[in-house]
Specification:
Layout (H helix, E strand, L loop, with lengths): L6 H7 L20 H9 L3 H9 L6 H17 L2 H9 L1 H20 L13 H39 L8 E2 L2 H6 L14 E3 L7 H10 L3 E5 L16 E5 L10 E3 L8 E7 L4 H10 L16 H7 L6 H4 L2 H4 E7 L5 E7 L11 E9 L9 E10 L31 E8 L17
Parallel strand pairs: 2-4, 3-4
Antiparallel strand pairs: 1-2, 5-6, 6-11, 7-8, 7-11, 8-9, 9-10
Helix pairs in contact: 3-7, 4-6, 4-7, 6-7
Length: about 425
């Protein structure tokens, strides 16, 4: 099997080398390919026009100037610091726009449309160039208009949101937007329009309503440790609401939960409380907090609920869903929603025949729990929450309509939660397993 083969046999068996990836647009240090950038700026079918023209290049100078125009637009769109600089300097912005139009003018001048076909003029090629120039001019016009639109939207947002939270909590600066463009995935799609860092849970309902009024997509965010992209803005008209300031952690208490007769240990935590802090508070009181993802040093309680986080102890007591006694959130209508688990079995939820939850909606114009709007009881078969033979099913975001859990912030924003705590068994047994490769 290790016998040498002639080189021509080996070469013939090798697949042809893949074509080199084109990177002709300058300043493109992003994960977007040239094709994706061209599609975003000039339209999806513009790449085929450029591909056709690439084979007919003479000096390539016109192509380079076009790519320079696209590169200038792209680097500003992908750099909030440059955006802020140009917003603050209308003169510099005007010079940039003029330079972009100048390059297109040079491309247009090199077309030579009056040259007869006998002298080498190709009318079909010229038509493609004219089409690309028209698209590029439209892209520049849109780019120029974005600055006025952004300035107007910032002024309006500051006015509306400033009635609800402190001015310092409304962040348009480059650092805040760069810090909230991605999570642990490092996947960057769009920079958010604004980052909101409210001081208290009480502000959230009004902020959600205001963001809807402003036409902004709301992206809830805690520690930013998720690996599923739940905290990543997909549109620039978005507001990231950071809940890390909701870091109030209660003491371990003993109380009787709805439907139970014996007291159990619970702990209340704001959405911004780091998971490790909950574990340490429980341990100090002689209990165990079951939710212990590997990101416990940085992840937050709100994300644990929204992601239905688990960890090593899930083998004993299940994931976040199994250990929640109560949680509060703001729904997409801007109202408060409180969910209470009834008859908690203090174990894995799929072990019960029917899991029951009480849902209470309160008017978002008031404080949490102030003005009751309606109530509802959900009764869900326990087996629905787990996929047989699999356990936690991350593909099931609906979870029989249970709000908040495993929705990644898509059906509301978690603001606080109350968890049940456990005691470790008095005796443990360690099993060592060795895996051979």
């Amino acid at each position: 099997m290790n016998a040498p083969l002639a080189s021509h046999i080996l070469n013939g068996a090798m697949p042809p080398a893949a074509p080199a990836r084109l990177r002709e647009i300058p300043y493109n240090y992003t994960s977007f390919s040239d094709r994706e950038i061209v599609g975003r700026l000039l339209g999806d079918d513009a790449w085929s026009l450029l591909t056709d023209l690439r084979g007919e290049r003479r000096t390539g100078r016109s192509a380079r100037m076009l790519y320079e125009v696209l590169g200038d637009i792209w680097v500003v769109r992908r750099n909030p610091y440059l955006q802020d600089d140009l917003l603050d300097n209308p003169k510099r912005r005007k010079q940039l726009i003029e330079a972009l139009h100048h390059r297109l003018g040079e491309i247009d001048r090199r077309r030579e449309p009056d040259v007869p076909a006998e002298a080498g003029h190709d009318p079909h090629r010229d038509e493609k160039v004219v089409g690309l120039l028209a698209r590029a001019r439209s892209a520049i016009a849109a780019f120029e208009g974005e600055f006025d639109q952004t300035a107007m939207m910032r002024k309006q947002a500051q006015k509306v949101l400033g009635r609800i939270t402190a001015r310092d909590n409304i962040k348009f600066d480059g650092l805040s937007r760069v810090s909230h463009v991605t999570d642990a995935t490092d996947w960057r799609v769009e920079y958010p329009f604004v980052v909101l860092t409210p001081d208290s849970e009480d502000e959230i309902a009004a902020l959600v309503t205001a963001c809807i009024e402003l036409g902004l997509t709301i992206v809830p965010r805690g520690g930013g440790t998720g690996y599923t992209g739940g905290a990543i803005p997909l549109t620039w008209k978005s507001a990231v609401i950071n809940t890390e300031k909701f870091d109030k952690l209660g003491k371990v208490e003993s109380c009787i939960l709805p439907g139970l007769t014996e007291p159990v240990a619970v702990i209340h935590a704001g959405a911004g409380v780091v998971t490790k802090r909950v574990s340490e508070a429980a341990e100090a009181a002689g209990f165990v907090f079951a939710v212990d993802p590997t990101s416990a040093e940085a992840s937050c309680v709100g994300g644990n609920v929204a992601m239905n986080a688990g960890g090593k102890k899930a083998v004993l007591w299940g994931t976040a869903l199994d250990n929640l006694a109560w949680w509060r959130m703001v729904d997409p209508d801007g109202n408060w929603l409180e969910v209470s688990r009834l008859e908690h079995n203090m174990g894995k939820i799929h072990d019960v025949e029917t899991a029951r939850f009480e849902l209470k909606w309160f008017d978002g114009k008031g404080k949490p729990g102030e003005r009751l709007l309606k109530t509802e009881t959900l009764e869900i078969k326990g087996r629905v929450f787990r996929k047989e033979g699999l356990g936690k099913d991350v593909t099931d975001k609906f979870l029989a309509g249970l709000p908040g859990i495993q929705k990644e912030g898509c059906d509301g924003l978690i603001t606080s939660a109350r968890w049940v705590l456990h005691r470790m068994p008095r005796h443990t047994r360690t099993v060592c397993m060795e895996f051979f490769g």
